Amino acid sequence: MREEERAKSMRALITGITGQDGALLAQLLLGKGYQVFGTYRRLSTPNFWRLQHLGILSKVSLVPADLIDLASLVEAIRVSDPDEVYNLAAQSFVGASFEQPIGSGEITGLGVTRLLEAIRQTKPSVRFYQASTSELYGLNGVEGTMQSEDTPFQPSSPYAIAKLSAYWTTRVYREGYDIFAANGILFNHESPIRGLEFVTRKVTNAVARIKLGLQDSLELGNMDAKRDWGYAPEYVQSMWLMLQQDEPGDFVIATGETHSVEELCEVAFRCAELRQENYVSVDKGLLRPIDVKCLCGDSSKAERVLGWSPKVKFAELVELMVDADLRRWKRWKEGETFPWDAVNYPDDVNVVSTMKNRGG
Ligand code: NAP
Ligand code: G4F
């Protein structure tokens, strides 16, 4: 069967379809002709804005499920009857994992065991993708080194510890039960629909608001941290590619460039013809108990085996995110409201916590 025809008969289940990567992957798979199912959690306010924003809400089938709840995962596999499962659901914010280490472990770590067990018991023939992360390298991420599939892990947050457990669980189900299970070790990847608490979007959103007179300053934490930031729509392609191989494996996905939070601010403010030193200050409450110093990925295996390589690099990424936020807030000033900006993130939200990381 030709590739396009095969894709048209394929069914995919995406956990975490309401998140950045879940929505972008759904868009990619729909474009290939897949029937796409996605899990969502029951919330008091529905959270489908990314799917709406991408114009695909009515094109996907939504299945209620929670990584905390095994029965809901079994049911999700049953009703979607997938060929491929992409596990993108997680408590994905490193800062929050220091405040809620046990909850983060339950969802981001043990949740993956629940999902793989649901697969093993109901449909072990599915191909499984696990959203692993460069945070696994943790304290091994130091200036002047690059991380590959062979670099030892040294996790340094409750989030990373949970992801390490999930990484190994994925390998155990691959090697022990012969399930086609792949780990994508993805470095940071961003887009205009990135959550507002992550530093890239926090900065680009603030730049747009400052430019338009809606905000006058920006408080950040560790300005020296360096990350390898790529463009999320390209990164979700690599997830799909990993599940199209003859054999399952683990792959680093990265740009091979690293930049500091300070540089991120410089470039983002410059895009709006502003100078960051006039607006940015450090709030010590935003520092994490431990922070990974420097991440820079070597994705040569992905290039060789998957034929994947990044196109959008740091400066272009920051510019496109600033542009998107400027457009969004200009329209807001003209009277258009956006549920994700105006309602979910009011200016005067008052979070009380010993750590401020939850609020970004
Ligand atoms: P995200 O925007 O925070 O999305 C996370 C998704 O997980 C949301 O759909 C969320 O649902 C869902 N979720 C949270 N708790 C859940 C639970 N208990 N049961 C079921 N679903 C739950 O994250 P992302 O940036 O798209 O990242 C996707 C995955 O890749 C995550 O596993 C993340 O840890 C991993 N990752 C991300 C990056 C990156 O740079 N983006 C890099 C490496 C790895 P709600 O919408 O209801 O909250
Ligand atoms: O944007 P961040 O919160 O992303 P972080 O911690 O690198 O995690 C993201 O990427 C991981 C892949 O490596 C994913 F696994 C994870 O799910 C998530 O998507 O922070 C980036 C850096 C950190 O060093 C942080 O300390 O920016 C620093 N930073 C400085 N000021 C800040 C801030 N981070 C946030 N969120 N908010 C600040 O005000």
Automatic annotation (TrEMBL):
Instruction: Give the signal sequence positions.
Output: none
The record lists the lineage as: unclassified sequences, metagenomes, ecological metagenomes
Q: Which GO terms describe its biological process?
A: 'de novo' GDP-L-fucose biosynthetic process
Q: What cofactor does this one take?
A: NADP(+)
Gene3D superfamilies the record matches: NAD(P)-binding Rossmann-like Domain, UDP-galactose 4-epimerase, domain 1
Enzyme Commission designation? 4.2.1.47
Q: Does the record's keyword annotation contain Cell inner membrane?
A: no
Query: SUPFAM superfamilies from the entry?
Result: NAD(P)-binding Rossmann-fold domains
Coiled-coil annotated spans = none
TM region(s), chain numbering: none
Keywords for the protein's UniProt record, in alphabetical order: Lyase
Protein name (Swiss-Prot/TrEMBL): GDP-mannose 4,6-dehydratase
**UniProt source species:** marine sediment metagenome
| Molecular function in Gene Ontology | GDP-mannose 4,6-dehydratase activity
Report the sequence similarity comment from the record: Belongs to the NAD(P)-dependent epimerase/dehydratase family. GDP-mannose 4,6-dehydratase subfamily.
- Domain NAD(P)-binding intervals: 13-321
Q: Which Pfam families does the annotation name?
A: GDP_Man_Dehyd
